[in-house]
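Internal tracking record. Fields below are filled automatically when a chain is submitted to the structure queue. Please do not edit lines marked as system-generated. If the sequence contains nonstandard residues, flag them in the REMARKS field before resubmitting.
Queue: standard
Priority: normal
Entity type: single polypeptide chain
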Amino acid sequence: MIARLRDRFFRVRAVYANPVDRQRANALLLANWGIAAITALWLLVNPGNLDGLDWNVVAVSIAILVICWLNYTFIQTGQLRRASWLFVGILTGTTIQVAFLAPDGSITISSANMITLAAPLVAAGALLNRRGLGIIGLILAGSVLVAAAIQSQNGAPVTVVPARLAPFDLFTLLLGLIVLGALLAALISSFDRTTAEMQSDLEGRGLLLELGAELQDVNDQGAILARTMEVLRDRFRVVFGQVYLLDEDGERLIPAMNTDLVRQEMAAAGASLGLNERHPVSETARTRQPLALSAVEALRRGALLRSSTRDTLYAPILSGSKLIGVLELQTGESAGFPPARIETGRLLGGLLGALLARGQAVAQMERDLREQATVVRQLQEQLSSYQERDRRSVSRIWSAYLSGRGRAALGFDLSETGELRLADDLPDALRATLASGLIQVESNGSGQVLHVPITFRDQTLGAMAFTLPPGRALTDRQIEMAQVVAERLALALENARLFEQSQAQALRERKAGQIASLLIGATDVRALLDLAAEQFNEALGAVSTRIYVQPELTDSAWSEEMPR
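SYSTEM-GENERATED OUTPUT FOLLOWS
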C-alpha cells in the first residue's frame, strides 16, 4: 500500500530526457507537496484568528491546494516549464502576502517574516532560467519598496498581541523553512545525482550507438533480436528481457524472443496479448509511452516476473508513428529504473523499431523481387516457346513453299554485266553460313568475299555472297550495309511468298466459284456428273476423274444405270 502511494504521488512518472530537468521535476514535486501539507495543516489547525473563522484565509488555503494539485498534474505529464512558473508564481504571491500583510490587514515590514522572501528567490534560481530569476527578483524588490513606502506613511501606534501572532508566524516560518529546505536539498544533491545520471545516460547512449553500428547491415529479424537480447543480458544486466511483436493484423502482441532463448530464432516465449487486455505490455502498446513499474504493481496488472525482479520497464518499439512491438525489461537492482535508464529503454525501443522496420521492408522487397523474377522467367519461357514455334512455322512454311516449286533451294548469280542467272550449285562457304547463321569473310585469289545470312524472325532463309575486287579492303560500314540489305531482302522474300500465296488462294477460290456456278446450273444428274468430272480434270490437271454415288441414296429409277 505504501509503495503504491509512493509510486502514485511521490515519484515522477513522466520521462524527461534532460537529467537537469529530471532533478528539477523531483525537487519541484517535493516542494509542491510540502506547500500542500503546510497549507492543509494550517487550514485544519487554525484557519482563522482568535475572533472566529476567517473565510478569506479558508478561500486562499483551498485555492493553494487546488493549484498544488494542478501543478502535480503538470509535473507528471511532462510540462515542467509550465509547472515551474506556476509554482514560483504562487509561491511569490503567497510570500508577498505573508511577509507584508499584518493580521489586522495593514501593510507592514516584519523582520521575522522577511525570511520567507528567500523562498521564491531560491525557487526561481533552482527552477527557472536567468531571465525568470531576474523577473522574480524585480517583483520581490518592488514589493519591498512598496511595503516600505506604505509603512513609512503610517505613524499610528500598533498593539502587538503575541498569542494572536503565534499561529501566523508559525505558519510563515514553517512554510519558508520547508520550501527553502526542499529546494536547497534538491540543489545540493542534484550535482552528484545529475552527474551520475548523465554518466549512466551517456553509457546507455554509447551502447546503443555500438549496437546500431553493429546491426546497420543486418536485415534478418531473428539476428537483430538475438543480438539485442545478448546485449540486454550481458551489458544492461537485466534479470529478464523479452520482445513482443505486433502480428500482421495489428491486434495481438506475440512473444518473439527473450534473453533465455537468444539462440532460438523467433521462439515463442509465452502467450500472446491483445491490445485491450489489462497488462503492462498492452498498456504500453496503447499509450506508446515507456512504463516503469515496481514488481508489486506489475504483478497486480497481470505481468509474469522472475523471483529476483524488483522493477520493470516496458518500452514501445516504434518506427516513426508505427507500432512494431513492445520491449519488456526486468531488473533486480535496488536502483530500479531511474529516469536515465527509462530514457535509454525508450531509445532502445526506437532503435529496434527502425532496425526491424528496415528488415521487414527488405524482406518484402526480396519477396517482391522473387515474385517478379518468377514472372519474368515465365514470360521468358513463353517468349522462347513462341519464338521457337515461330521459327519452326517459318521453316515449315518455306520448306513447303520451295517443295511446291519443285526445288529444295533457289539460287541466283549476278554477273558483272548485271545479268541475273539461275544458280544450281551451293558453295561450301554459303553452306557454312546457312548452318551457322553468322556473317563470314574469306579471302581468295579473286579478292575478299562477304557471306551474309538472310534471316527472318531468327530463321535463316538463305545467304548472300558479295565478292570485292582485289586490293579493296572490306570496311565495317560495308558489312553493316550488307546486313541491312539482307534484312530487307528477307522481308521482301516473305512479302513475295505471302503475295504468291494470296494470289494462289484467290485463284483457287475463283476457280471453285466458277465450277460451283456451272454445277448449280445443271438440272440432270448424269449431265451434272459429266460436267463435274470435266471441270475437275481441267482444274486439277487430271487425266481422268471417277465419281461414285451411293445407290441407296439415289432414286431407284436411275440408280441402276449409274456406273459403279
